[in-house]
Amino acid sequence: MNIFNTQFYRIVVPKFIRKKILAKVLRSDILAFYANSKEAVSGEIAEALDYIRNRRIAMLPYCFLDQYVESLNEVLYDRDLQMSYVRMDGKRLYFKKGWSKKRVRLSINELRKEQDSRSPHCYVKDNFKINKGDVLVDIGAAEGIFALANVENASRIILFESKKEWLEPLRATFAPWKEKVTIVNKFVGEVSDAKCITLDDYFPRGENPTFLKIDVEGAESSLLKGCTRILSEQTPLKVAICTYHKEEDERELNEILLQYGFDTSHSDGYILTYTDRKLKAPYFRRGLIRAIKN
Question: 241, 253 in Cβ contact below 8 A?
């Protein structure tokens, strides 16, 4: 029996200590697995292994992380709205009420790492980005950093965020562009009901999006089943979809997009979801697929 998965262990050992123990054990398991592997290790995985071996376990195990210093992120406070915010290219990005400055600093630091051009989690690339006039649909918007970075180029933005506590910060962030930004507090999936909506049901024919950013914590496959009309009929269309939440996501989601005539490519590097207790060899997963149909 694995003691790390027992209820007794989770009750007796504090969560922050459990995380440290899990990371240490996982680091040893990963290095041992690849040391004993008979298959050739790719350059990107070798680079990630080197980072883990010489530095630490990280979700984005590459040296560019070291350029980000949490304490350098200036956090400001809006007394009228009673929310903290940071400045992004002169624009305000708000965070949840009650968040401490330390928590905001940590969060914005992680977000900036994710969207670094060298990151496996970066949605865009030189030849894959939001163009002037695009209709951007940000599904799993959270704080809205991706939409905010592209708010000038997009002609319309629809933010889908299922967690109510993000609605107030999102409204504050996008208040200067409220005429073209819509915030929808629903899950996006394969059925439409009181709490969920499909993209096919949300968008009537003739009002289809041109860029889908999809990060829905493992429900990506279900979401694609609910937008078959858009995937079939809409051109041009770009899709940036996360593939690291489940082991088979990269293969399964890529097959779906290929069936609809998209040209697909994956982001550079690998993601290590080291907090997932179900994570198993070969451990590393591609961050996302970029798909395009013209």
Answer: yes
